[in-house]
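SUBJECT: A protein chain and its fold
Encoding: whole-number codes for local backbone shapes
RECORD BEGINS BELOW THIS LINE
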Amino acid sequence: MTKSAYAAAGVDIEAGERAVALMKDSVARTQRPEVLGGLGGFAGFFDAAALKGYDHPVLATSTDGVGTKVAIAQALDVHDTIGIDLVAMLVDDLVVCGAEPLFVTDYIACGVLEPERIAAIVDGIATGCEEAGAALLGGETAEHPGLLDPDEYDVAGATTGVVERDRILGAGWVRSGDVLIAMESSGLHSNGYSLVRHVLAESGIGLEDRVPGAGKLLGEELLVPTRIYTKACLELARTLQVHAMSHITGGGLANNLARVLPGGTGAKVDRATWRPAPIFDFIGRTGSVDRLDLEATLNMGVGMVAVVAPADADAAVELLGERGVPAWVCGTVEAGLEGVELIGDHPAG
């Protein structure tokens, strides 16, 4: 059979159609009652009548990708978790302001559209949407021959959520004396992988090597999906006096926490309250990366921080633990400080 001119140029329309067919079941798992229509339209529809139950609904939106973590997935030929990372990076940026994510859209660009690989990526996105309670409303897969190598791809997405105007969390609610509740990360999450890949390239250590104390191969450790905090954090905000939350992504704990502190206040975070997972020490020792650089790049074991009223600190830790999110008091907000000060040392292994 003679190839079409488009196929000869490297774009396989039939492969795209097969990929859509393979992902239909994954998308269907995420549907909410507000979703109108099915997969394959030019746009996704979400019934805004659902917002009538709010007194003053405010829409919130976030867009993101997973950065160079996709290079690890491609090197290991494991593609069913990177979509979870994508959703986590989207919805956990929404929940810090108190917003419930309603739906997610995704974009996948690839060198060659291999239907099973695309379906695996979308299955991961659907899993993340299920964990967050958001619908996978639509997306786009694009083939970019000549721009990306045949096995290369990148993923990005966007999410929209809703929050009552008078329940938007942020620096305006934070007061001196508030308590910082740290929530454990599942690993590196989706930030700092350029540093990690540089360290591995310089050291000669391979993805099949073991991480001391972790019980996993390095590649497996690096592909652990980003924890999705959304449902636990929404319940925390509904039931307790939560003033702000900070998603600990690029820039590390201090820089991200500083974003939700009002002028005239700072915070002290005590490293002695937790021990980072072995992967963090492994990256630091292997690459001779000093602690300040690590803390300015990686989450160091804390993926989210809630700023709560002192009277609710213990209840917050208990609620999060019951929802499967290990949490602890890691510090306080104090007047007269500037920025976030990390004090003490992590417990020895």
Summary: The chain has two domains: 5-164, 171-343. The chain has a mean pLDDT of 92. The two ends are 63 Å apart (CA to CA).
